[in-house]
């Protein structure tokens, strides 16, 4: 049964709602993609640009999953940067650092180019502020700053001390911060829908309310929904934390973590601008962090907390209110108009997972809360792989990953324990 969009700020401010049909009958295409979030849509668009005949099947609505629920922050971190570099060193030697560094910004370029080329209205803005929650956290920001300078980004970054922070944010909380002008923030659902329309304009066939229930992989693959079938040379699984397909091969690799997000009622433009005068997106240095920004219509969108049980919280706005009021005491009692949760796909070593479950069935998942840019990079790598350029696909497909050989519930408890450990260790950072 297809589910409606959640009650989020994004869904209340969609430029134009999608009306794609449910799949009925049988279709024959080159590639069928399962899942209509950023991963699926970005892959569909790349493949359509290359001239492939693509069908995309989404169980609910385009952008219904994590893509329609996130903080909209396009970060220059892939989450598993260090682990990735370490593993790549044994394969590509000293090129590993530069490869991962370039990848950190590759998603930004793809998104900027798409927004321009297909004229997608998605409130794209530049600027992030990474704030030091404790004085001792300044060291890691300084390390990032030094690395960025070494790699030629000094004009785009700046270390800010506590008094300098006041030009960017009106809060007593932090001890300094790192400003990054290359990072971006945007309206996630409007970007995803805009990309889906671009793919459609190039010939992609898009279906909503079309959950894939079975995949039969022979010389050709057949995917089945309640009312139809698609026969294709290749299948790409892009359901991330929301799908239960290919469990035999994928069990124990990815863990759904429920993340909360909310948006206040519209603030006066003066109040909004007094909170974050340069309209940058903000996040702090803690392991379980707060992340927030202003929306185009002057709300504060605020996310934080993570529930690794794999279940959604019942009152996300209530849970986030204390953090909002601690950050901005001037918002005490503010009306929180939207509160929602979403499932992010957490990978233990935080390296995105891509590979094949069988010769014709590819998968791509697990960006550990950093997927806005990463899903676009992975979409490019997946489309190249389908087109026979396997170099980067193989680099990722050969990464080692931990697998927790337990069912999802036990896996999530193990993950929750691990996270508790990091939260305790936070006290000693
Ligand atoms: C609250 C929250 C905040 C976040 N904040 C940020 C952020 O600020 N910056 C950042 O970079 N990342 C953030 N992320 C992570 C980011 O949103 C995700 O990594 C990214 O959107 C993943 O995209 P996806 O397409 O892989 O998965 P999803 O967007 O989850 O899409 C998967 C889709 O597959 C569909 N599907 C599942 N099963 C089937 C099936 N059997 N048949 C057909 N369709 C199926 C689902 O309906 C869903 O629409 C956040 C995530 C959450 C939850």
UniProtKB/TrEMBL annotation:
Gene3D superfamilies found in the cross-reference section: D-Amino Acid Oxidase, subunit A, domain 2, FAD/NAD(P)-binding domain
Gene Ontology CC entries for this record: cytoplasm
Matches recorded under InterPro entries: FAD-dep_OxRdtase (IPR006076), FAD/NAD-bd_sf (IPR036188)
Domain FAD dependent oxidoreductase: 30-384
Keyword Plastid: no
Keyword Oxidoreductase set for record: yes
UniProt keyword annotations, A-Z: Oxidoreductase
GO MF, one annotated term: oxidoreductase activity
PANTHER family membership: OXIDOREDUCTASE-RELATED, SARCOSINE DEHYDROGENASE-RELATED
Protein name: FAD dependent oxidoreductase
